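re the bet — no i am not wrong, look at it urself. input seq straight from the record:
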Amino acid sequence: MLCRSLKLQIIGETKLENLGKKQFQSKIMIKPRRGLIVDRTGEALAINLETSSLAGNPSKILKSRSTLHLLAHALGTSPQVLKKKLDAKRAFIWFERHVSEDRINRFRKAGILQANGDMPEGLWIVKEMKRVYPHGEMAQSLIGSVNVDTEGLEGVELWLNKKLAGKGASFDAFKDALGRPALYQMNAQTKTQDGENIDLSIDASLQYSVEESLQDAMIKTRAQSGTVMVMDSKTGEILALAQASSAGTGRGVKKVMAVTDGYEPGSTMKPLMLASAINKGVVKLSDQLFGHYGKFVIQKRTISEAEAHEKFGYITLKKMVTVSSNVVAAELALKFGAERYLASLKEMGFGAKTGSQLPGEISGWMPGTAKNIKPLTLATMGFGQSIMVTPMQMIRAYAALSNGGFLVEPTLLKRKENEKINEVPLFKQGAVRDATEALVNVTEDEKGTGKKARLEGYLIAGKTGTAQTVDPHTKRYSTSRYIASFIGYPVGVKQPITILALLDHPKGIYYGGETAAPLFSQVLKQTVSRFSIPTTEKMEIPLVQGTPAPSKKEALIANESIQIAQSSAEVSAQSVESSKEVNLDHPVMPSLIGLTPQEAIRSLKPFLPQVQIHGFGLIKHQSPESGSVLSPHLRVTFFLEE
């Protein structure tokens, strides 16, 4: 016995040593600080705030009747109920996570937390970090959310959870007499690594404005859901992505419908098909196809125009886009051929994920092989039926027309400085030019379907879409439910952008030209204002002498859109000031430097002098100079920037 005692006291026993350590030592994990999520300007969208949580040691709490009663009172339950929930074999349990300051005060009143911070044996307050979203529900579907342990559940928080979470570290912690972690020593081989910050491509200010506009459109149209996207056509960066649902909580839609929800695009597919057909040399923009006077019978089925009164004979392909003829689009699809059309759809990225990497993205659907496409199916594919796409796929395809013919990968992450962008050549310049000319006619021609997409000072290329949806009960196309959309871009701007506006199941007037087009115009207005994108003016001034101004088509083909180096608001303000300088009793020539010829002529009313213009752009010099006497027969010459 004496020998055994000496062995234990002097030499020691490994088993007993380990049992002793377990009573006073434990292994704990220290979590790193989660990375922030910010917008393209550095505006915080997701941050961390320190908070308190109530934890305890059940084995110690069960040994103290007073502690059990105090804790039960603080938690608003009975000691009996609480006792049943506690497992005496456990050394740690969370009671409440991320408690508020009011809750902390209640703990004080209940007696489990003293003013000096002391607590009964087996209870302690743990400091943690919680995730906070300063802008509330704004961009919630994109940013996503985390659970109570700050692990990503949805959106960017889930998609980039590994980068955001960082790397934790293991510590050996020694408990005090109350069972609380007291002294701890970090393992030298393991260090914490805070999570990376994520820079999103969206602009918080624009995002908020676009969400407000979508909400207003949802109220006006009583649509079931809606999606609006703004993309930088050259970089593929998503500058804003708003979505709403009448069935949910408005902005609080969790999934990103732009990549998770497919739809039949309808007439917005017609310009893409036309661009592809021109690109492959199948047709020219001036070619004419037969409209069958509104009814085209194929495989014993009749394809009709959207409006019964529309009865076209032979019309050009440009007019097909302008008036959105289903019949002529069907004829073009048949002329294009199943094999070439299907190949073009794949080249434009349809039937495959866009590479956005957003959770839940689908590929959409289209026929697998050209051999399986019957003439009726091919004809309906011509006007955007019998295929399924996502809004992200559609805006990327239109961006290729906006940026000069390149397919770029859309991204929700801000591009790094000097980052190389993978631009896949898609359309030749001639195809881009012709398709854009047709799209401009949609908004500029009085018979065009997209007149309500116009924005003063900008030339808009875009297309309306009013697509039928399949009734889930009958499995046939519904006669009462449609998806209204408008996709387009301003022509000739220095910072090319593409905008998609989509409303699902608008009530009452449901046409894309009446519902989605005005929403597009409002979003474009917000975008050009936010990024100070100068207006584009076309030279359409009646001149008495001098070189005649080019037509819209000529200017478009020559790519001679005139850039104003100031915002439209600044130009308007200058015009007003110039007009004020003209004293009708003693009229003198005001300074017109820096204005467009249109603004200058407007400021010279009511004199309407003979005007001669040289060059394109803004007025660089004028003759006569400011201060000269104005008269009705005065000849004025404007020298513009070349």
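see?? Residues 333 and 341 are 7 Å apart (CA to CA). told u. also The domain at 27-199 is CATH 3.90.1310.10 (Penicillin-binding protein 2a (Domain 2)). so pay up
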